[in-house]
Write a structure and sequence with these properties.
With 308 residues, the protein is α+β, with helices and mostly antiparallel strands. The chain folds into 2 domains: 33-168, Sandwich (Immunoglobulin-like); 173-303, Lipocalin (Beta Barrel), CATH 2.40.128. It has 4 helices and 19 strands. A hairpin with a 4-residue loop joins strand 17 (250-258) and strand 18. 24% of the residues are buried.
């Protein structure tokens, strides 16, 4: 009886192999669909170098599934300006700065379609943008959606990708100010000036805007941009040119940019509250870790100049 049961089991197993000899991992495990990468996120960020006449960012189309695509997949992308308005209405208040489309003539799409090549997972869709036409204090967004695909199903969820455009250049980013502020009529009196500063790319590839002493703008706070901002331009010889951003009463200023240390050694004179003042110190880029911070601290102490 045991022999008969064993023989039956063997025959059953053999019949199953004969009926289906497929290897599961060689077959598609999931329904295929075509989607815009990042469409499931609130928004994605893309940096634009304001020093370029034209900069390029990319959107991406992908094909889901466990196997590579058997042939080219062609996807058509269209703009969705109504999605920018929908985001503003849903996520922002009436007193917030709202996102807006950059506007006609500022950007273009050199490709009509996106092609995900046979055997590939992604295809890219370039967007050409003139960064110099964008204003530092405005918010810009380009929204895209899939209109059609040549094969497989078009994703029906999270169909729009919202791309936020951020201006930058090689000098922009998070910095820290380490210096002093003194009244010119009493140089023995001084105020320690140490704080973080966000150097924002403006005008070209060599210029950033920074705040003098005051807090940077945030919703509900005093807007100090008109009266307390100035531009720093790094010249070809690494000397500095300082100019007021708007109404900041800058008398004169200068200094040197040390590229190897990513630090501005600067000074500037200005008028405020009926008096003339001088700021002198270093504006150094954010450091990662104690060793880097120790290195820039030692460097500043070796190069620091004190007014009498």
């Amino acid at each position: 009886m045991k022999k008969l049961a064993f023989l039956s089991a063997v025959l059953l197993a053999a019949s199953m192999v004969g009926c289906d000899n497929r290897i599961p991992l060689e077959e598609e495990q999931y329904p295929r669909s075509v989607y815009l990468v990042g469409a499931g996120e609130t928004m994605i960020n893309r940096d634009l170098n304001i020093g370029y006449d034209v900069d390029t960012i990319y959107a991406s189309v992908a094909v889901s599934g466990s196997l590579s695509t058997p042939s080219d997949v062609v996807a058509t992308i269209v703009e969705s300006p109504e999605s920018v308005d929908a985001y503003n209405n849903k996520e922002l208040g009436s007193d917030d700065i709202h996102y807006r489309n950059p506007g006609a003539g500022i950007y273009s799409f050199p490709q009509e379609n996106v092609v995900v090549k046979k055997g590939e997972v992604y295809g890219t869709y370039p967007i050409l943008i003139d960064p110099s036409t964008l204003h530092i204090d405005s918010l810009y967004m380009i929204a895209l959606k899939l209109e059609s695909v040549s094969q497989f199903a078009k994703s029906e969820e999270d169909t729009v990708v919202k791309i936020r455009l951020n201006l930058m250049n090689k000098y922009s980013g998070l910095y820290y100010m380490d210096g002093v502020i003194k009244p010119l009529d009493n140089l023995k009196d001084s105020t320690i000036y140490k704080t973080n500063r966000n150097a924002q790319a403006v005008i070209d590839g060599n210029t950033v805007r920074v705040y003098h002493q005051k807090n940077e703008w945030s919703k509900g706070a005093t807007d100090y941009r008109p009266g307390y901002c100035f531009n720093i331009t790094v010249n070809e010889d690494n000397s500095l040119t300082l100019k007021p951003w708007d109404k900041f009463d800058l008398i004169e200023g200068g200094g040197t940019y040390y590229e190897d240390m990513e630090v501005y050694d600067l000074w500037y004179k200005f008028r405020d509250e009926g008096r003339e003042w001088i700021t002198r110190g270093f504006l150094y880029k954010d450091r990662q870790g104690d060793d880097e911070l120790r290195e820039i601290t030692d460097w500043m102490e070796e190069h620091r100049v004190y007014d009498n």
